[in-house]
Amino acid sequence: MKLKAYKTSLLAALSLAVAIHSASAQTELYFSREFSLTPASPEPSGGSGAAAENDSQAELAKKLNNPVANLISVPIQNNWDFGIGPADAMKYTANIQPVIPVSISENWNVIIRTILPIIYAESPTGGDSTSGLGDTTQSFFFSPKQPTKGGWIWGAGPAFYWPTSTDDALGPGKVGAGPTAVLLKQEHGWTYGILGNHIWSFAGQGDTPDVNATFLQPFLSFTTKTYTTFTLNTESTYDWDNHEWTVPLNLMVAQLVKIGKMPVQFQIGGRYYAERPMNGPDWGLRFTVTFLLPK
Prior knowledge:
Layout: H1 3-24, E1 37-39, H2 47-64, E2 72-84, E3 89-96, E4 99-103, E5 108-121, E6 130-133, E7 136-144, E8 152-162, E9 175-187, E10 190-203, E11 212-223, E12 228-234, E13 236-239, E14 244-259, E15 262-275, E16 283-293
Antiparallel strand pairs: 1-14, 2-3, 2-16, 3-5, 4-5, 5-6, 5-7, 7-8, 8-9, 9-10, 10-11, 11-12, 11-13, 12-14, 13-14, 14-15, 15-16
C-alpha cells in the first residue's frame, strides 16, 4: 500500500481513539483490564444476577437496531467496494460514527449521529490513488423517550453536511443542510422501519458539483435469543442534479459479545449494487465493530 494509505490508517486509528475517549467521558462504565471474549448466554446460569445480566444483554441487542436509542455507541464501519470504472478499482471507506443521546427534557432526547469517512480510493482509470478525509454528515434527531401507543419509535430534525474532505476526489467540500427522520417498530425480535434525509448544499468553494441528494434506508432485522442479528437493508441515494440512483442491497449478520466488561458488537456482510451511476462499484464487503457504552 502506498504512503498515503499508511497515513490514512494512522488517521483512522487516531480518530477512533478520540471518538472512544469522548464517549467514555459521558458514562461511569468501568472497564476491566482482563481481556475475555464472552458470547451472551440466553439462559440464566443461576441466581437473579445472571437473569439481570441476560436482560441487560437483550436490551442492548434491541437498542443496537434502533437508530435513536438512548445508548452511547461508537461504530467503526469498514467498507470495501470493488469493480469501479474501467480499471476495476477498489475503494475503502472507514466510517467513524459516534452516536450520543442527550436528554433535553423529561420526555425528549436529541440523538446526535455523526459520520466521518476516512477513504482510500484507487483511480477508476488506473491513475494514482487518493486517500484522506471525506465530508462529514451530522444528524440531530429529536425523539420521544417512549414509543407511541402503537409501539412506533420515531425521530426527526436537521442534518448538516460539513466540508471536511481533504481532496476533491473524496468529496465536494460543500456546506449543506436539510431534514432527516426515522420511523421504526420493534416486536418479537423483529425491527423494521426507514431512515432518510435530504441534503442541499448552499456554500463552499471550488468547482466541485453542488449537493442535492436524497438518502433512503429501509431496514429489516431479526435478533435471536443468543443476540445474533440478521439485517437486510438498502442505503439508496438519489442525485437530483444528475438524475442517478445508487442502490446497494446489504445483507449482514452481527453478534453481541463482551470483551472484559465492555459490550461490543461485530458485524460482517456483503452488498450488491442493484443500481449504480456510470463507473460505480459492482459489489462490496462490510465489517463493523461497535463499542457500546450503556448509560
